[in-house]
């Protein structure tokens, strides 16, 4: 074991490992509690996650702007090569540690009210803990091999949680789809690890960051690792699993979209940014731009409240990936942090609406799709608290001034302005696309808010709708407060606060006032335009189906793969199985012939020889049988034979 911290105290280490393992302990406790007392998990899980959050807060306070904390242990040895497992905590990982644990705690607390009455609370809360533990493993791991292990555990956890309601075939299909799509990207990730080991002979992040090898293999390795990011963070073209994942419980959607799963890809991108060559970064930026545009436009035409937010997440993740590709991983991480809070708040608020409507439907027996915004409207009167937190978090998503999203988007736009340079190039198109995404974000966000909360009531007019319980309102309140500008910077128009300053690798101050002014004016213009078109439905099958990317994927990828699988199965059944069956029958015939030959010929000769020997023995034994008659008989027989022989 080796350690190189500048603050190696027992308290710090205890807090670091408590933050990591308390969610795992929550998983174990949830599974071990008997069914009779399964209701206890609604208390034990939030409590353990609260302790984990407090421990993560201590870690962040101790680590922020200090020497990184590292600790390693030998894991295993293969062919003389030793693989280590360890912890690497710096500003970026310590910040993410707190974000993940805090949002997981709030989601666990919210779930106590939302999932009340669910028949399988133990498995649900247990998997929430395991999901959190897996994400935290990615955050603090000091090498990419260990990251990959936790990366796969995150995929497994999401599969279990998306498919929590097993009786829903759509949920089961969505879980399988998410799992398969992520495995496609993970193949690239695994190949990238192989390339790294072949050339650098190390997975350690610190060792790799100091490597000065040639660019060729780094380009290949970084692009392969980025394939994993594409799958996990739902980037083009592997994004269609994320809207489908909305079939799972809404708190799970909040956790996936805010702090785990999709956040893992952007975090990894920032963590291994040093591996990316200029060509690889351009590819990353282009992918992020396409994803951001596609997600934003697709969100405009959706009618499902959760799918609007899902496509919004795809767009915002594309925005973060674009920032990383433009050479600003710190801006990407800043937006990841702010997005975690306001998107979690939006999902929990959407869940509050759905929960309230389901409760009212159960009492009135008036069925309709509670997630279809075309059935909703006017809920601000019956759900004023939910309306308030929706407005706050929606404003942050839209990037309105005085909200956190405004500052983090400003950081990205300022970085893009520097990145594009002065001469005209394709980067100007990317820069312009970022403003298009920003404008479109305001449109779909306030379309959602006005459709659900403003106007006249539709299908909900005769329902008795009440606000969610306190266990659901408190987490939404905390997240709404965290959606304000103050968590980023005391100055509502300057993103260079404590988070951005701590994430930058150098002390260069980046703030462009013109961008702040342009951004504020732009989103206010978008808000005015959104007001003018409120209540209108965008009827576009292309946007509703996300430019048919999913259909194209099915035609180009899924259908050929299924056909290949069918051909392979037919070949296996008719050709391979035919050859094997023929060989088996031939072997059976040969075995039967060999058996007959063994019995009739080999065994026959042996048996006949034995019979002959037995006969000869019996014959000669009669000479000495002890009977006088036989002695006289053989004596006379011998005399006769002698006489005949003499005469002849």
Shape: elongated
Mean pLDDT: 87
**Could you name the ranges where pLDDT drops below 50 across 5 or more consecutive residues?**
1-5
User: Which value, in Å, is the CA radius of gyration?
Assistant: 36 Å
The tally of helices reads: 23
Counting helices, strands and paired strands, the structural category is mainly alpha
Distance between the termini: 108 Å
* Beta-strand content bin: under 5%
The main β sheet shows up as: 3 strands, antiparallel
Number of strands: 3
Strand order of the largest sheet: 1-2-3
What is the N-to-C succession of helices and strands? EHHEEHHHHHHHHHHHHHHHHHHHHH
- Multimeric organization: single chain
Which keywords apply here?
23 helices; elongated
Question: How would you describe this protein?
Answer:
This protein is mainly α and 648 residues long. 71% of the residues lie in helices and 3% in strands. Strands 1-2-3 form a three-stranded antiparallel sheet. Helix 1 packs antiparallel against helix 2 and helix 2 (41-63) packs antiparallel against helix 3 (91-114). The protein is elongated. It starts with a strand and ends with a helix.
